[in-house]
Amino acid sequence: MKKLILLSIISSIAMADCSYKINKLERELSYAKQYGNFNRVRGLENALANVRAHCGGSSVYNNDYYTRKNEIKDTIERLEDEAERKIDRIEDKLDELNDMKNSMSKDEYKRRKAELKAEKNRIKDEYKRQKQALKNSYKY
Question: pLDDT at position 46, please?
Fold first, then answer.
């Protein structure tokens, strides 16, 4: 019984130490991002990943938290890639339109160009809205 209590106490201390380390690294990471220190950001992200993976054993709560956090980051990256592909296609259409500029009326050219730019802006706004909704659904 004493061994079980001792093990429980040690485990609690280790988890508290892990939380402290994680909080400290996250704070440092936010500072590095704020000041544009990209090399420090990469290093801190690696350190944070290592602490999360190896510190204090596994905790169901911590694993669920970080699994969800990573899922959201992956979803945001996927949305960003998709938005970039769509914007690239619109940029290609704008280039094609520019090549055909002399073969159409000025009004037609302006109308088509405005439509493509509006579509491009709509895609950007939609991406920002979806990204913000994901971040709001799970603060990290």
Answer: 83
DSSP state of 101: G
Side-chain half-sphere exposure of 48, counting CA atoms within 13 A: 17
User: For residue 50, what pLDDT band results from cuts at 50, 70 and 90?
Assistant: confident
Single out the residue of 90, 81, 140 nearest to residue 115, CA to CA. Answer: 90
Q: What is the secondary structure of 3-54 as a DSSP string?
A: HHHHHHHHHHHHHHHHHHHHHHHHHHHHHHHHTT-HHHHHHHHHHHHHHHHH
Q: Could you count the other beta carbons within 10 Å of the beta carbon of residue 124?
A: 13
For the stretch 64-121, pLDDT in tens is 666 777 788 888 899 899 999 999 999 999 999 999 999 999 999 999 999 999 999 9
Dist. CA 111–CA 34, nearest whole Å = 41
Please give the angle made by the CA atoms of 66, 67 and 69, to the nearest 5 degrees: 60
